[in-house]
Amino acid sequence: MELALIILLAVFLLIAVRQVGRFRFRIWQVMCAGAVAVLITGQISFPDAVRSINIDVMVFLFGMFIVGEALSESGYLFTISKRLVSYCSNSWQFIVLFIFSMALLSAFLMNDTMAIIGTPFALYLGRRLGLSIKMLLLSLCFAITTGSVMSPIGNPQNLLIATECGYTNPFGTFLLYLGIPTIISLVLLVFFIRLFYPQDSGKNLCIMEDVPLADPELARILIISLTLITSCIILQVLLTLHPFGVVYSVPLPVIAIAGAAPVILLSRKRVEIIRKIDWPTLVFFIAMFVLMAAVFTTGFSRLQSLQQLHRRCFSCTQ
After folding, report:
1. Which residues pair with 24 in a beta bridge?
2. Which residue from 89, 223, 233, 241 puts its CA 20 to 30 A from 196's CA?
3. pLDDT class for 299, splitting at 50, 70, 90?
């Protein structure tokens, strides 16, 4: 067995265990150790390791994390919580609205972003409305994971598929094939939440007072960011519907950069926001790209040779 493959299996084992004796490991630390191991042992050269990093994914994650951190810093989500509750006459209606709104946001702001900013939001709403915090956190987890499926920018995996496969209309393609299954899954999620948490159904909701914005200036900048993200997505879809074919397709990383640009350029908290973004997740993906590149170039070299031989034999028979 190739050394790179052994290192990969060790990484999977440590990620599953997370603790050896008194030492606890985070996922990004384990993946980073695996990447360092394949570099030190010569399983992949440093130039090849650098080339293996998918810049599109890293730029997209960086941009979306900035938007997500700005959402958290501005307090914008907490301010609109009163408006969200005002649409509901009881707790059950709120749970349904909460699940579908979190799912929709994750489809366009990415599930990693919503996991970061949605958790304190769920905790806040649970305490203020007297609902089960565990129920809201479970609803959040399943909603953002499920909702992210129907969009090419919903999660890093979808982004990789969209960029590597070269879809001319990634939003339309994902929505066409995954929109209905996503909606069905969300409806089933609502059913199971009600089944396992019947005590939170039908409660009268507490009246929530207005929550002042933590940073009104950042909230105004954030509105510009969200408007740019939405505009880029609409433009991307419209350009692919041009009657004479695709004239231009907005690259998916550009959508994230368009959203992050107002925060970076206009906010006085730009340094603080950049410092607080989810850097461990960015390190995790960089390390994952390096480790997997080493595995595919060494651990699966025999398999690749067999595939090439199969293609040659197949072409000779044509």
Report:
1. 19
2. 89
3. low
